[in-house]
Amino acid sequence: MRGSFECAYQLLMSYFVEVRLVDLDFEFGIQTASCKDKRFTRCFWCFGPPKKTYKLLRPVVVIDGIFLKGRYRGTLLTTIAIDPSNHIFPLTFSITDSKTAKSWTYFLKMFGYNFHGYDTRFVVISDRNPKIINVVPMVFLFAINTFCAFHISNNIKTTLKSTRIVFRMAAEVLTSINFDKHMNVIRNTDPVGLQYILGIPKETWYNLCIPMSRNVVTLS
Description:
- The protein has 220 residues and is an alpha/beta fold.
- The protein contains nine helices and seven strands.
- The protein folds into two domains: 1-147, no CATH class; 148-220, no CATH class.
- A seven-stranded mixed sheet has the order 1-2-5-4-3-6-7, with helices on both faces.
- The relative contact order is 0.11.
């Protein structure tokens, strides 16, 4: 809020240390270009106690990133989960240079180490970023990588707003009868949009087709 971006990054380590004084379970890590070159590369942090907190949440994790608009740009990566009361619960954060495969690997490995472990079955929801699709199974052998229905609906090649709405309804229904009903609406009104949808395996976005159903969380 005050001072320059350069000063803020220089104080990052001091800030993390101060947070740990009031939260003994606070975890963080900072990477620089090299031991001699102290230029900031990426950092990670999460509030504790991580593993105890995660046991209280649903086995569904949403990962995403957003571009920063400050002087040094970069990307903020996040993971969130849903608590038993359907409230969004932020888990981990990372500031990195960009959304590269190396950055996603670092971020997910840090998440796994602090929260999840690498041998547990759970659902990861993300957009269809190829880097995420490739990295998730490398880091978490037992994770089920699914796609956010909201992201897919926004990318449907259509001019009909109703197609996007009906698609999200189809993704969330809990019976095959209702699913077929919504898909038939799209089939009868928007054949072009339907072809785009059919090009994405429904095992990655439709509740009942996902081995570990993600109807414990709704992203719409």
